[in-house]
Amino acid sequence: MSGTILKYPSHWQKAFQEGRKISMATCYDYSMARLLSRTNVDALLVGDSLGMVIQGKRSTVPVSVDEIIYHAEMVRRGAPDQFLLVDMPAGSYHASIESAVANAMEIMKRTGADGLKLEGSSPFLLQVVTRLVESGIPVMGHSGLTPQSVLTSGGYRIQGKTDDSAALLKEAALSLQAAGCFGLLLELVESSVAQELTEHLNIPTIGIGSGAGTSGQVLVYHDLLGLDPDFSPRHTKKYADLSGTIIQAFNQYDAEVKDGSFPGVENSFFK
Ligand code: KIV
Fold first, then answer.
1. Any catalytic annotation for residue 187?
2. Cα(first)–Cα(last) distance of the chain, in Å?
3. pLDDT over 70 for what percent of the chain?
């Protein structure tokens, strides 16, 4: 960490300056937001990962502005006071700076989000970031693996493994910081590269699959809670194994309905 401290949310700034790690988890609905609002997790992300884990699609690309707003509104209702970040969906910030600002403002106004996250670092994208920040919208960058452009960037692979790609990641990170990002999400970046980037920046980095050297971490809650029995990639950790618990609960319910033990007297109403 060096240089001037840029503007970003105050509790992140405090954690970052005091050298404390920042925790973030995805969230897509009211019930989970209510639970998360009772935890110490620092920030919620309504990620476009909802396209895959909620909608069952093959990538994050099909998610629309209306869909992200629909989910973010629910999360905000469940967690009115938590720091809430929302992803700008694929294509919603690429046609022109004007349409990017319009879409960003629409998301901010309808959801009560505290900031937006955008993928990439092209010259055009840097202009978009600058304009959004000028418009008063806190922006988090997203570098490394950027799932919205996975079809043109070579698939779901660890980024920064060669000197050239590490240098490009560093250039991207510094440009995003200069454009006004308050933080940078690093997805699937080789660990020593992610650590080095973090040391060169004066904004916090939030890692996923990028090792322990970032300023904080984010996980998709389905991975964290073990909700998908068929998905256990190396970069996630199952803090619970709820898929088994949930399947067992439904099977017990089914058995009790069929053997007549549910509803019991205690679940029934009498004159
Ligand atoms: O959409 C998402 O959930 C993300 C992950 C990288 C956390 O951006």
1. yes
2. 70
3. 96
